[in-house]
Amino acid sequence: MTRSPFDLTGRRAVVTGAGRGLGQAIALGLAEAGADLILLGRAASQTSTRDRIAALGRDVEIVDLDVADHDAIAHAADQVNRDHDVDILVNNAGIIDRQDSADVTRQSWDRVVDVNLNGLFFLCQEFGRPMTRRGHGKIVSVASLLSFQGGIRVASYAASKHGVAGVTKALANEWGPLGVQVNAIAPGYIATDNTTALRADPDRSRAILERIPAGRWGDASDIAGAAVFLSSAAADYVNGHVLVVDGGWMAR
Ligand code: NAP
Fold first, then answer.
1. Which of 88, 147, 148, 169 has the greatest count of CB atoms below 10 A from its CB?
2. Does the beta carbon of 64 lie inside 6 Å of ligand 1?
3. Which UniProt keywords apply (predicted)?
């Protein structure tokens, strides 16, 4: 029987921040497509995702990591790379800090950039090295509409997510010739803990909904298909792309 180009059976995927929200939906989507998983993030928050993936019959393990801890990244990646050939890296872990730009502290700025951009780049490096040596691999990062737009009261987040788009294209240029595709997903407005404050503000919530042609907030599961696609052989000729999955927001 011919293998579907979307089939991930036998592939090993690492997903950061897979305990809730988009990371959980992406990890489950990859597992449903056949992949075995490593959930890389704070161990305590990922047990329920691990149990749901195990129930699908996939191999799954948790590796503890705070992605803002630079030294810990190399240590965790060594541990994973020693035991596994990682085929897919999904950089999902991310935080947002909503504040007037005039009030943003250095500490808050650094924390957002450390998690969303610095951690992401060095994870690409740690898992990208063996991928380029083996001559194949997929890196998928979770960017944002704020990789293209400025947003409101989220300067550190917008800066970090513009950076994610830049890193994605830079690595695609370097590693494409070595058989590794590096892409990103830019989710629209998705109902997760990341957007609780927006959904709780009636004016912002209404303004956002009015611009979304789909007429609803996204669900975390809306992002899983794009992650499976970009992780699969179906996307072998897709490189350096930031794929918007936003219910049509950017078309307005
Ligand atoms: P979420 O529900 O707040 O989940 C954030 C995830 O990141 C959690 O799993 C969290 O782990 C993990 N994380 C945060 N800091 C971490 C750290 N230092 N080390 C390890 N893991 C860490 O938000 P989400 O909406 O699913 O966000 C996931 C990604 O999508 C983020 O990159 C976000 O910027 C992006 N995104 C979201 C939206 C949206 O509308 N929701 C739109 C565009 C982009 P814990 O559970 O341990 O805290």
1. 88
2. no
3. Oxidoreductase
Return the number of other C-beta atoms located less than 10 Å from residue 241's C-beta: 18
Q: What residue ranges define each of the domains in the chain, with the CATH number in brackets?
A: 12-246 (3.40.50.720)
As a whole number of angstroms, the distance between CA 121 and CA 125 comes to: 6
With beta carbons less than 8 A apart as the criterion, state whether 38 and 12 touch: yes
**Where does the pLDDT of residue 1 fall: very low under 50, low under 70, confident under 90, or very high at 90 and above?**
confident
- Distance CA(54)–CA(152), nearest Å, equals 40
What is the maximum alpha-carbon separation in the chain?
60
What amino acid positions are annotated as catalytic residues?
A: 157
Q: Which atom of ligand 1 is nearest to the CA of 115?
A: 18
CA dihedral sign, ordered 246, 161, 95, 174:
positive
CA 171: distance to chain centroid?
15
> Quick one: which of 29, 131, 28, 32 has its CA closest to 88?
131
Q: What would the pLDDT profile of 144-199 be if each residue is shown by its tens digit?
A: 999 999 999 999 999 999 999 999 999 999 999 999 999 999 999 999 999 999 99
Measured from the CB, is residue 247 less than 6 Å from ligand 1?
no
Q: Of the residues 192, 244, 245, which should be mutated to test ligand 1's pocket, given the most ligand atoms within 8 Å of the CB?
A: 192
* Torsional class of 179: left (φ above 0), alpha (ψ -120 to 50), beta (otherwise): left
pTM: 0.98
